[in-house]
Amino acid sequence: MGRNKLLFDLAGEPLVRRAVRTAIAGGLDPILVVLGHDPEAVRHALAGLPCRFVANARYAEGMNSSVCAGFEAIPRRVAAGVVLLADMPLVDADMIAAVVARYRDSDALLVLSDYDGVNAPPILINRSLFGELVSEGKGCGKLLRRIHPDKATDISWPAAVVADLDTPEDYERVRAQFAAHRLTR
Predict the structure, then answer these.
(1) Which of 11, 40, 85, 94 would you call most buried, defined as having the most Cβ atoms within 10 angstroms of its Cβ?
(2) CB burial of residue 161 (10 Å; 0-12, 13-18, 19+)
(3) pLDDT given at position 136
(4) 8 A C-beta contact, residue 59 and residue 68
């Protein structure tokens, strides 16, 4: 997209800051932010928020390397990790809280968000699956679901929420939607 999309402004703040605020409001703690391209600018955008930074020297290999770096850095005391993407700004705190609640209320080791047949974050993964996630390194929840279908559960969300920002047109569409509806998630 020509520059670091995590720093794109949406409703007055960078996407990455919005994502961290949403994670906090959704009850996640600790918050780990995986840094790749332009780490100092991302740190600056998150100034004052309670998050820890995880460097991913392999960020050029793609998103899966960042997911793996994040899961490897989760403190031992934490029972499960949640994958969130800053370029999915329609994911809100209620969705995150619902994923965590589903995990707590079930015996599932994997909670996947389903957007009309598409699995995407937020995804919750129990610590017992971290090793498989990191060793396989691809497909995140989808791969784990294929390996452990009996340990997975879904939460359904409207397909429109899965909108991620991969092109300038995606960004402009979501930015216009936020402006028109004054969304502040």
Answers:
(1) 85
(2) middle
(3) 58
(4) no
Mind spelling out the 3-state secondary structure of the chain? CCCCHHHCEECCEEHHHHHHHHHHHCCCCCCEEEECCCHHHHHHHCCCCCCEEEECCCHHHCHHHHHHHHHHHCCCCCCEEEECCCCCCCCCHHHHHHHHHHHHCCCCCEEEEEECCEEEEEEEEEHHHHHHHHHHCCCHHHHHHHHCHHHEEEEECCHHHHCCCCCHHHHHHHHHHHHHHCCCC
Q: What is the pLDDT of residues 114-168, one digit of tens each?
A: 999 888 899 999 999 888 877 655 556 667 777 788 999 999 999 888 878 888 8
What's the whole-model pTM score?
0.90
- Angle, CA 150 vertex, CA 72 and CA 78 arms, to 5°: 30
**At 10, which CATH number?**
3.90.550.10
Give residue 42's domain range. 5-181
Residue 112, beta-bridge partner list: 154
Class of residue 34 by CB neighbours under 10 A (exposed 0-12, middle 13-18, buried 19+)? buried
